[in-house]
Fold these 4 entries.
Entry 1:
Amino acid sequence: MEQFDRISIQEISKTDMLMIIKALEYTGENTNIPSFISLKNSIVKQLSELAETTEEEFLLYLQKK
């Protein structure tokens, strides 16, 4: 198996990305494990920067069908 340090997300659909973000948020809130919320926030921050928009606008974009 080839080793890698980073994973590309370009093939993940909007729906799947929103599901991942919501799952991290839900898990963090219901287990009181802050690393889940931290990971969710990091993903949203990085993706919104790539999209050159705010985090709120990016989340709204993911929610649009």
Entry 2:
Amino acid sequence: MQIKTKTFLAHTCSWCNKHLDKIDLITIDASNVLTHIQCPKKSDIPIIDVGYYTDVVKEYSNL
């Protein structure tokens, strides 16, 4: 039996609403907000991790 976990992380960049694909490089900040690396509207909130979308979602899916 496989248990599905629900992710509470967004599927879009929180600043410009670009859809995030599994191969996008993204950051997750101290307020658990996802932003893609090339986002022109980034915030100054401290970053806690950088990585590909699928890797970050796996690691932080329980937030």
Entry 3:
Amino acid sequence: MLHADPLLQRPALVHPRVLARALDHLMPAASSRAEVWQMLTERYTVDLDAVAALLPSEEPEPRWLAARD
């Protein structure tokens, strides 16, 4: 990720609905999840935890063994 320029004004995406709309716009243009993160952080000021909550997880869900009775 590039170093952020503190003098460059970027729009802040604080509402989850607006953030989700920006992600929907950027995802088709990106070839990977990392590129989505990069494009988003280069263009906007965002809460990274909110972005992580909206992006789908790349890791498969774990399969748990059945509990013993």
Entry 4:
Amino acid sequence: MAVQLLLGPALSYRHLGRLSTDPVQSEMEKLERPAESYSAELGLTYALTPRLSLLTGLGYSEYATRLDLTVKQPVVVYESFRRPVLEYTTNGLFNTLYVPDSIPSSNEEEQQRVRHRDVYRFVSVPLQVQYQLGTAGRFSYGLTLGATANLYVGGRTTQASGCGCDQDSWNLGKSPFRMVSLGLTAGSSLRYRLAGRWNLSLQPTFNYLLTPLAQTPDRSARHILSAGMRTGVSFDLR
């Protein structure tokens, strides 16, 4: 058996799947772009055979997308003037009075830069199979394949109403997103044996959220995906 700690950055994005029934929300989501994210995992590995091992543990992941927009809104410019008003007097004369007034004189556009990072945070429980393909001196290399149970714990997303300039924050108890979801994990591993029972690990990893994250039809289904590189150490318990 061995205990390992891995963490590292990734690039995350999403597959929208079923589009939102809200056309404004749908168009906003189509403008999302990939963003940096990260994950960390503390795991326990059990060797079934000299080459095959099973891993489980506890992890934390933050996936993200970004919006970088220039929003144009019409602005009406008003021109002020004094409007004449005639008032009849008792001696049969008209006195001219002037009151302040204004009229629209031109239409202009106002530009506003919107830069948002939408975030989705998960606590996860992985169940992975690791297969060692070979060794070279102190190095060993192999493949990793498995599934992950994810618990949504919060985040923030951009509002589709108005100019999309504001964000909503969500937590575990209240959100439009599914609380529990299932994901797939695939990757490779490179291990270097240090002194004693310590090992240095490097794992390129790909993750895909199978379960649609959104649970309401006013948002697109949203399947999150990411590709990253995790590094860390492991300690043999034998």
